[in-house]
Design brief:
Elements: H1 2-13, H2 24-41, E1 52-57, H3 64-67, H4 70-75, E2 81-87, H5 102-112, E3 116-120, H6 127-132, H7 137-144, H8 147-154, H9 158-164, H10 170-175, H11 181-185, H12 194-206, E4 214-219, H13 244-254, H14 260-265, H15 280-292, H16 315-319, H17 328-339, E5 349-353, H18 357-360, E6 371-372, E7 392-393, E8 399-400, H19 405-416, H20 418-421, E9 427-432, H21 436-439, H22 442-450, E10 456-459
Parallel strand pairs: 1-2, 2-4, 3-4, 5-8, 5-9, 6-7, 9-10
Helix pairs in contact: 2-19, 19-22
Length: 471
């Protein structure tokens, strides 16, 4: 019990957005950024100084959830969102795209979905070579080399790169004829050039106000800095120990003053090195941590408690239905209507509906609390003459996700964790259709638990089907 308790305590204080499963990070980031805009347009809180960052892998982008809702980010003009995709070209078993280029693929995919794309492909060492490339020969070699070959280059040396990369065109071979093999080998990829990365981050933040989400595609090497036997290898993810020679190279690269004799005494117990509190690097690190507000990320749960609705809100349910049979879904919707009459409680309720409001009898909420849409409703709905007409509004309260259980679950997490992330308690109520909504999003509900999401998830029809013959 003490272990579980301490584990929960650590999670409660530290983790803010745990998603665990690959693919859930992207969708959760999109709906977190969307919910921030929702809070702003509804006048509940101004989160305009907040920015949502998602740090992802190129292999992770194969998950359907990673790409499946990119259009939502551009549709809702989420310029408060940035994806950073670490393109090391590698999954656990092999290349992400052996015969093509994942960066180019992702660029076209994100651009097609309406995103601003920033590519950080080559480090500063390449700049002079690109300037000398007046005929575009180097750019052509770069663009026609497959990711599988790029991985092989990094598993060899400068001489191999000279022959098999620059040697593909006599013009590119001439570009590096005055460079040594070591100089060629020292050419970095963009994701390992801190100046290039900084420039990309700065540019991403400049996109605020454009109405477009941003993705940074950073070209990197898996295992970078760990030595020849680690970098770019298919087995990198499974390698748990540095061999003695790798350890020495790692020490040399970081300029750590530990002798060969000490390392050779026990390669698997290398001593911990600290340069001292007065070292300029430590001083810089301490200053930056203070500016950031602490030494580790902090999950804050301080918020103003939400008042519980008065007992009269529950009177209708207590009276029951008499001799008339009533569906549980109908009874719940009736309760929700009564709760929404409480002026203190009602603004905090976030109904989340995956295109089933009419099935659940919730269409009566359309003309009253309306459906959230940052653009409002610039068309005349076909049922505009009816009492329960479909109504969208900039300050709408309902989050209507369409035929989209995954997005509904992500919206539920964003709303249900607002007490921590925003200091504002919200009450998401997600009604999903029968078993389908649960079967498709069980993993997301697990993430909701990890984030200590607060709210209600309700299966709104009994059994696996509601239509005779459907099942």
């Amino acid at each position: 019990p003490s272990l579980v308790g301490s584990e929960m305590c650590i999670r409660d204080r530290f983790w803010e957005f745990p998603t665990v499963s690959m693919g859930l990070g992207p969708i959760n980031a999109i709906y977190q950024a969307r919910f921030n805009k929702y809070l702003e347009t509804r006048g509940i809180k101004d989160p305009s100084n907040q920015h949502v960052w998602a740090f992802l892998g190129d292999g992770e982008m194969d998950e359907p959830e990673s790409r499946g809702l990119l259009q939502i980010a551009s549709l809702y003009e989420l310029d408060n969102l940035t994806f950073v995709v670490n393109c090391n070209l590698q999954r656990l078993d092999g290349p992400v795209r052996g015969n093509t280029q994942i960066i180019q693929e992702l660029e076209s995919f994100f651009r097609g979905a309406g995103w601003e794309v920033i590519k950080v492909i080559w480090g500063r060492g390449w700049d002079k070579l690109l300037e000398k490339d007046t005929e575009g020969a180097l750019v052509n070699v770069m663009n026609t080399t497959s990711d599988g070959d790029y991985q092989t280059f990094k598993a060899n040396d400068g001489a191999y790169v000279r022959e098999h990369f620059f040697g593909r065109d006599e013009r590119t071979a001439k570009l590096v004829e005055d460079m040594s093999d070591d100089e060629i080998w020292a050419l970095r990829r963009g994701g390992h050039d801190y100046r290039k990365v900084y420039a990309a981050y700065a540019r991403a933040l400049e996109n605020k106000g454009t109405g477009k989400p941003t993705v940074i595609l950073a070209h990197t090497i898996k295992g970078y800095g760990l030595g020849h036997n680690f970098e770019g290898r298919n087995a990198t993810h499974q390698m748990k120990k540095l061999a003695l020679e790798d350890l020495k190279q790692f020490r040399d690269r970081l300029e750590i003053p530990i002798s060969d004799k000490v390392l050779e005494a026990d390669p698997y117990r290398a001593p911990y090195f600290h340069p001292g509190a007065d070292d300029e690097r430590i001083q810089y690190l301490m200053e930056r941590r203070r500016a950031l507000g602490g030494f580790v990320p902090e999950r804050r749960t301080r918020h103003t408690p939400l008042p519980i609705p008065a007992q009269k809100a529950f009177d209708g349910v207590k009276r029951g239905s008499g001799k008339q049979e009533v569906a549980t879904t109908m009874a719940f919707v009736r309760l929700l209507k009564d709760l929404m009459r409480d002026k203190n409680f009602a603004p905090h309720v976030v109904p989340i509906i995956p295109d089933e409001a009419r099935t659940f009898g919730m269409d009566s909420f359309f003309p009253t609390i309306k459906i959230y849409n940052p653009h409002g409703q610039n068309y005349t709905p076909v049922d505009h003459e009816l009492m329960l007409s479909y109504r969208e509004a900039k300050n709408g309260q309902i989050i209507h996700t369409g035929i989209n259980e995954a997005g509904s679950a992500a919206a539920f997490i964003a709303a249900g964790s607002a007490y921590s992330t925003q200091g504002v308690p919200m009450v998401p109520i997600y009604l999903f259709y029968s078993m389908f909504g649960f079967q498709r999003t069980g993993d997301s509900f697990w993430a909701a638990g990890d984030q200590m999401t607060r709210g209600f998830i309700i299966g709104a029809t009994a059994g696996r089907t509601t239509l005779t013959g459907e099942g």
